[in-house]
User: Which sequence fits this backbone?
């Protein structure tokens, strides 16, 4: 558990137990309403520079909000590009999503949402390919999440709202693939135009408060126990460590340790580490219940639709080689991993257990020529 000191950041959190978003889609909007919404749009497709990729955002309710960032199949430049941006981290923190309330007079009234203050970035240091996102022509990335808490707190039961995407400029992007930028910096180039993500997409919903909507909670599979292990398979375990209390001052790290205890033989093993990150969960204590917090970095709320790629299991960082008794560790800065925290919040990390989707006996020497097909993104299945 982590007890947090001061509020610095805001980010999306899961739907609170006593609230529910009831969807009312509108097929045809009046010209008057379109004109009202149009006055809030900051960037349109006309603002796009011809030498930048053509991308767009779509929003749906399902019942969580689903955001799909896609790139046109018929883009002018066929090269893949990498970027730093997500609707959850950036779109809401910069108030590029706005709330409009339908009034009884048929007008749209903007709802004030408290600001989220984030220090602007001037560069991003790339340690791993997963620090960047990539889009090829025709590719897409889908994020699923609820409204951030500071937005939800402004909703009134029975009122109908429009959640509108107003558009943005994405400064951190460049041509290439994530592996091109590992151990380097991605900066906003003064000679390269910003990437325009046009505004305009929106969803209409009516907010209703209900007593015990257990059905809106994400159905979570039970954690795996040691007794669930397959007899004769290698034995792996995961341990988590970190401070009990953290403050905004300094950098506080949590660590994950994967230990190989051996198996029927004493041979080393090599395995894909995807399941480790997929089943690592962060929870916030809300009203006496642990609420799962998800986001693009949390993997469970991110889906990508791109063809598989072929990788060498020795060269790809997504594979781990261990001998019996050895362990593999990774650490991360806690306050860069959890979002929307406030004074007095209590959080916890939990590894639920899972099944490794690819493994084999042998080490580096035995698998120097072993190639496998995997999704191109660390969150893909």
Assistant:
């Amino acid at each position: 558990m982590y007890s947090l000191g001061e509020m610095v950041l805001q980010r999306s959190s899961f739907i609170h137990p006593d609230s529910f978003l009831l969807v009312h889609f509108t097929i045809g909007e009046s010209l008057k309403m379109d004109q009202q919404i149009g006055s809030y749009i900051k960037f349109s497709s006309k603002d796009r520079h011809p030498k930048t990729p053509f991308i767009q955002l779509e929003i749906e309710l399902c019942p969580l909000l689903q955001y799909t960032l896609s790139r046109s199949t018929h883009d002018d430049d066929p090269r893949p590009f990498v970027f730093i941006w997500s609707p959850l981290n950036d779109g809401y923190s910069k108030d590029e999503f706005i709330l409009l309330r339908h009034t009884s007079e048929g007008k749209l009234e903007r709802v004030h949402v408290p600001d989220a203050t984030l220090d602007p970035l001037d560069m991003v240091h790339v340690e791993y390919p997963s620090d960047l996102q990539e889009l090829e022509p025709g590719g897409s990335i889908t994020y699923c999440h609820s409204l951030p808490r500071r937005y939800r707190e402004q909703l009134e039961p029975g009122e109908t709202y429009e959640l509108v995407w107003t558009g943005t400029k994405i400064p951190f992007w460049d041509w290439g693939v994530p592996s091109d930028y590992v151990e380097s910096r991605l900066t906003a180039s003064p000679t390269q135009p910003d990437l325009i993500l046009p505004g305009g997409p929106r969803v209409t919903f009516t907010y209703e408060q209900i007593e015990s909507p257990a059905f809106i909670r994400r159905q979570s599979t039970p954690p795996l126990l040691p007794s669930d292990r397959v007899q004769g398979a290698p034995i792996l375990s995961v341990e988590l460590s970190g401070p009990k209390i953290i403050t905004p001052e300094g950098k506080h790290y949590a660590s994950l340790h994967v230990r190989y205890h051996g198996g029927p033989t004493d041979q080393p093993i090599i395995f894909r580490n995807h399941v480790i990150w997929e089943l690592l969960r962060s929870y916030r204590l809300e009203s006496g219940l642990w609420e799962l917090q998800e986001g693009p970095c949390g993997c469970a709320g991110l889906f990508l639709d791109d063809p598989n790629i072929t990788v060498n299991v020795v060269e790809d960082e997504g594979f781990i080689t261990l001998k019996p008794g050895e362990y593999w560790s990774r650490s991360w800065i806690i306050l860069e991993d959890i979002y929307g925290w406030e004074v007095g919040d209590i959080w916890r990390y939990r590894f639920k257990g899972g099944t490794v989707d690819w493994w084999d006996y042998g080490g580096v020497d035995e698998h120097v020529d072993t190639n496998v097909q995997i999704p191109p993104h660390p969150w893909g299945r």
Q: What stands out?
A: The radius of gyration is 23 Å. The chain has two domains: 18-208, 233-372. Helices lie at 31-38, 87-91, 149-152, 274-278, 334-337. The chain has a mean pLDDT of 77.
